[in-house]
Each structure stands twice: as C-alpha cells, then as structure tokens.
Give the backbone structure.
Amino acid sequence: MSAKTNTSKEKGGASASPDRLAATLLLDAPASRVRGVSPARAGALEKLGVRTVRDLLTHYPRRYVDLSSVCTVAEARIGSACTIQGTVHEIKLKRPRPKLTLVEIALVDQTGLLVVTAFRQPWLMDTVRAGAQVAVAGKVEFSYGFKRMTNPYLEVLGDEPATGMIIPVHPACEKVSAAWMRRLVGNALEATCGVLDPLPLDLRAKYRLMSRGCALRAIHFPQAMPEAHEARRRLAYEELLMLELFLMQQSAERSRDVEPVAHVTDGPRLRALAASLPFALTDEQASARDEILGAMAAPRVANHMLLGDVGTGKTVVAAHALAAAADTGGQAFLMAPTEVLARQHAKSLGALFDAAGVTYALLTGSTSAAERADAVARSAAGEIDVLIGTHALLEDDVVAPRLTLAVVDEQQRFGVDQRAKLLSKGAAPDALFLTATPIPRTLALALFGSLTLSYIKHRPHDAARRTTCVVAKSERGRAYDAAAAALARGEQVYVVCPLIGKSSEERDELAGKGAAAREGDAEEAFHPTVAIEDDADMADDDVTAATQEAAFLSAKVFPDHEVALLHGGMPAAEKQAVMDRFRAGEIGVLVATTVIEVGVDVPRATVMIVEDADRFGLSQLHQLRGRVGRGSLPAQVFLVSASKQEAALARLRAMETTDDGYELAAFDLSLRREGDILGNRQSGASALKLVNVVRDQGIIEAANADARAIMEVDPLLEEPDHAALAREMRALFAQERAVVGG
Ligand code: ADP
Ligand code: MG
C-alpha cells in the first residue's frame, strides 16, 4: 500500500532546508517545547519516560478505537469487543473496599441500557456528567441481567472537533489523560512538520515505506486502520535498522586496535578435564564444545552464545572453554546471577578443575573479607586461572591481568552494562554467554549482530522422563502421595511457593480481575506473574506464606522427613547451609521461593510441587521444573492451582503437553518478549517500541541484512546518504555508552 505523501515537503532526501533541519533538531529538545506541555504536565510525562519531543512522538497509541464501527446496545454481542455510543443516564462512585474505588455508569441508547464499571478511575466523576454523550469501547459481558463493560475505553463526545473516526488511545496517567495526550502528540507533530527522514531513499523504495513524517502522523492519527499498519511497518523497520547499526558499530569498536587472543585448544589441562568427566558428553554437547573452542582458537574476539534448554548440560561445556583459557596462560571469569548458583559452580566445576590442574577461587557477596582479599590479590597477581563468582566480580578492585575469557551464565539475567563491565576487565577477552531463553536461530543472529551460536536441544538423560501434571488445590493430596513415595525411595522433593512481591492491596486488584491498569492488550490473557526473586526484596507476607507452608508440611504431611525452608530473605550463610544439606541428602523436602529458579542442580530431587502455579509465567515454571529430572531418575512435577479461570488453566496445561522450552515458547508469547531475548536491561532494547519479535521476524531479518550491507560499504556512516542515519543513531543511543555483547 502506498504511503500518502500529502505535502511536497515530505519528498526529497538530502537537501535539507533550514525548516526541515530545525524540525529535526527539535526532536531532541525537551518535551516542554511543545505547546500545551506545562511544567506540571512535563513532570507527569517524565514519569511515563517522556522527556524529549522525540519521546512524545514515539509515545505510540496502545490501541485504536474505531468509531466508524459503532453498534447499539441491542446489537452488541456478548463476549465480543464493541464500540457503543450513548447518553449517561446516571453515574455513581462506589467503594466496595476501603482502598478500592469504582465508578458505575448507566449508559443508554435507543435500544437499551449498558452498565459500565471503571475501577480506580475516580476522576471520571469529574469528567463525565449525567446527560453527556459518550462512546465506550471494550468487551461486552453479561451478568445480573445487564450487558456490561468493565474498564472500557471511554470518550466524552462533543467537546472537541471530531478527530476522525479512529481515536488513538495513548498510554496515559492520572495527570495527563488520554485525551490530553492525544492533543500533546498532535502539537508535537505540528511542531516537527517536515522532519527529515533518516532512511536512505533506496531502502524506502525497496520496501515501499512511508516517509517518516507521514508515518508518525499516520500511526498517531490514522484515517483508516490499514494506514496505521503501514505506518507501524515503516517505524518498526526504522527501529530495527538503527539498533542493528548500533550493535554492529559497537562490536566493530570492541575489536578495533586490539590484539585478540588465539586460544590453545589442545593443551594438557583441557585433556585432563575431558578425561576426568564422570560421563561422556552427548553429541550435541560435543559439537557445542567444538564450536566454542573453534571460535576461541581463531585470532578474532570471540562472541559466542550457547543456547540450551534448562538441564541440557551447558555448564560442563563451558568448563572446557575455561580450561582452554588456562592452557593458553590466560585467566577467565565465570559469572552467575545468584550466590547459590555461583557456589554450585565452584563445587561441581571445582572437582573437575582440581583434576585438571586449573586453579580457581570463588568470589561472592558473602565471601569473608580475608578470603576475598586473598582471592583478589591472587587474581591480580595472575595466580588464579578461573575466578567464579556473582556480581561481586564486577567490583573495581577485582582484576585479572591476563584475562582472555569471560563466561556469563544465565546471561539474560544480567544487564548489558554488567556484561560490558566484566568484559572491560581485559583488553579483548573472548566472551561466552550461556542462556536457557528459547531464541530461534535466525532471531538470535539478527538481534545480536556478530554473535556466533551453538544450540543444545536435548537433555543428557532423555531416557529419564519428566511428567508435568496440573492439579486442583483440593486434590493436592495426589502430589503429596507422589512426594511421599519418592521420599520412601530416598529421593528428594521441592515445594515452591510463589513470591508475590506485591502489596495485599495490589493483590486484591489482580484477584478482582479488574485489571484496571491493563487497559488494552485485549488479545493477551491476563495473568499476573510473580516477581523473580533476586536478592532480599520480598514482602513479609511471602516469607510468612513459605514459612507456614514449611511448618504445615513438616507437621502434617511429611512428619518422618526433614523439611527445610529456603528463601531469598535469609542470610547467605544460612541459605548456603540449607542448600548444602539438601545437596547432601540430609533434607528431604525443600520448601522454597523462586530463589531456586535458576541453575540449581540436585540430581536426586525428583518431585516438584508448585503452589499457586497460575501465578507464575510459563517461562518461569519451565525454569523451575528444570530443577528436577536432572539425573537419571524419572521426575514428576505438580502444578497446583486454585484457579477456576479456564484461560489460566489452559495456559498451565501447555506445560503438561510439552516438556520442551522451545515448543512451549510457541504457547506463550511472553516467553519471547523483547526483554527476554535482549536481556532484561539490554542496551538498545528500549529503542524497540513497536517491534514484536515474534510477528516481525521478516522485518528483523531484512533490517539485519540491510545494516550489514551498509556497514560493509560505509562502516563509519560517513557517506552523505548516511549522514542522517548517523545523526539519528547518535541521538537515539546517546546514553548507551556501554558495549553490547554482540
Ligand atoms: P544447564 O544447561 O541447565 O545449566 P547443567 O549444566 O546444570 O544444566 O547440567 C544438568 C545436569 O546434567 C548436571 O547434573 C550435569 O552434571 C548433568 N550432565 C551434564 N552433561 C551430562 C552428560 N553428558 N551425561 C550425563 N549427565 C550430564
Ligand atoms: Mg545452568
């Protein structure tokens, strides 16, 4: 579909008139330069992350209300999304609970009555009056004899000139309503009319993309929906091209003017390590090892990602890389996201390293001062081959003068700045990232630019089956029976309690299905997910819940077995003691919060019971269940849920259907959100506002190929055709000083 070029100003490329230049420069001016952005509104906008005019222009509508397809109350089909216009017959404020407000509106048209309920929007009492004409858009429900809408989009009609039949709904807040946001964005568009297009003409022509000016206007104020889609396509492509160029320039930067190490990959330590393995590597592990060693042996800065579902045995593969660094006379870091995991690595790899003659030390937040001083001094003197640790490795005084390799386990749990900091501790160390996030190959390649990849698809003990079963809370005796049977066989059990990390009030709201905050996203099932427990930040309630659960299990369910509690709020030494005893088999049942989510490896643990499983995201549940079925014994996972909501249960049942994280990802888009893929605070991730990594694979690949082609002919973006691109990239990534791992 063709882009509408409605003004001659939009045409043309390089010849920048002063007006167009001024409009373009305005993009990076403070948002307060836009008409209507008062200091108070500027403050409110800032809270939404909108600081500059550019931010305002890229504050895209979350959805659109199509007033051209209005229906009457009588026509509105129950269960479907509709727009209904009518007159406010009555409006009332109610307080079902002390901290919960609810506005109820009786809306009438010629055919009937619609009851509209809006949670936590008390200001509606001021903006909506009886007798007003309003349009509401949302899903029609039926209960207690009336057609209803809960938290619909609501627009008071008539007080402003018609904006067209399609009304954009921008993310808003209490201080700046959606209507105001629309006005401010409109003003920003006006002020930047004629803004230059950074995309070279040939690329625009190749994909028939709208100009930037048209696209911005069309995405905010489309005349018809296809126009909005075209605008999104253009702007998503631009986002990706910019990110790709940025990533590629960053990685070129990293290897410029440095002497990369060519690692020795047939040395004595590596051989000794291989010989001391208690098992043979699977074929997939062996090829991953070969690919990694190949990348390390090459006289280039290696940037390698090892992707494998939980339990596929990535650690031992990484051990080979670490031994190769030692054989080369280099030093290496292994960084893991949690203390429990770092200690486990020190323990399991330590045995291999001892056998191979690789020296190592452990450094975490709870390492004693004396031990820490010793490890830091020996590392600085070059006497330690491998330093294993947590974020503690990032501290400034931790140095390794001959650093040639940095391994980051569960890389998605680290921010780009943290990964960059680790790498910056050496001149040009090779980097190896381990992750269990299911990223398809094309996508990973595209998003990480120059990264090389290895995949491990199968767990070493494929024969040992792991079954997952969803059980109702009332039937959790079944899970306890299975756990008791396992304990009788000398195996061990995890009971996982969710960590809500939210106030009880917020919980009310979640439970109340009101979901006021989640206006929009209609196609997404609403499912609250628990927070990942990182360090000690957990609500008292959660501790209480887990503590009570442990007491209950110990007294009533498993009186003959040792039941212990593990949560993130415990002191490190205590956590460590519990994990050690569990690993040693002294504890039969470990009641834990999500602190055990990543990486923990106890092969004799074969049963896992997850309480309130519906509160977890699928990716988290998959990570969790990866804790069992790691040895040669078959394992059982029970997902306990009290939910009666069909959608929540159907989601959980996907866990029964497949045990494969990559397959599971197809069930749950949340598994493959940009954040997951790029890492939680990945540099540049914030630049992707429109891109959806699942739906936009084609655009991602195109942008990747185009960026490569540009980098090949003009790596520094110095050609006149690329001047606008270069300027745009600098503006977009001004704050991203960090080096990206790709
Ligand atoms: P992840 O990929 O999730 O990090 P780990 O590296 O922790 O997985 O390995 C999971 C378990 O599988 C560990 O107990 C490990 O010792 C074991 N393991 C790894 N490779 C093999 C193998 N080739 N044969 C048997 N067991 C293996
Ligand atoms: Mg692991």
Remarks:
- Residues 1-14, 500-539, 670-685, 737-742 have pLDDT under 50 and may be disordered.
